[in-house]
Amino acid sequence: MKKLMNIGVLVTFAVAAMTSCTNSKQEEKIAALEERIKELENGGSSAQQNQSPTTLAANVDTETTPDGPLGAFDFEEEEHDFGTIEAGKIIEHTFKFTNTGEAPLVIQSATASCGCTVPKKPTDPIPVGGVGEIGVRFDSKNKSGVQSPVITIRANTNPNVTRIKLKGTVNPKQELPDGPVRK
Description:
This protein is of the alpha+beta class. It folds into 2 domains: 2-60; 73-171, Immunoglobulin-like (Sandwich). 26% of the residues lie in helices and 33% in strands. The strands form 2 sheets. Strands 2, 4, 7, 8 and 9 form a 5-stranded mixed beta sheet that branches. A 4-stranded antiparallel beta sheet has the order 1-3-6-5, with no helix packed on it. The chain is flat and about 75 Å long.
């Protein structure tokens, strides 16, 4: 029974991942979940069978704590609402932060949950007390409805993964009819 619950939780996470925008990171997560389902169906290891569904889901996107002194993010905002826009519009936003940690903040990666969103991270370490920015560009082309792309940042922080988010609504582009319009 527990095995079926674990499989159900993993399938739920896989479906949730597939319904959001796709990119290589999401595809990797889906592949990892599918592999984990196969392991569970074939008996899996006893250590994995004793894990809770929450722990199993967390293992797909591991968050760890690096050794030694760490940097720390203090974002001015962790979520930006861009409101309602027309499809095809490009939104750019800058998430500003201060390093409130005990060591220079080194950002290894910044990835988005959707191929329509491109983050740009600082390339140099941010000194203690220094300020930095994560630029984000969202392209609403071929999008409609509520959008909420998530940007995942990996850095020498505790935990090593931080997430920031855009949200808003995209109105579908109004198509003009071909040819003359009748009255």
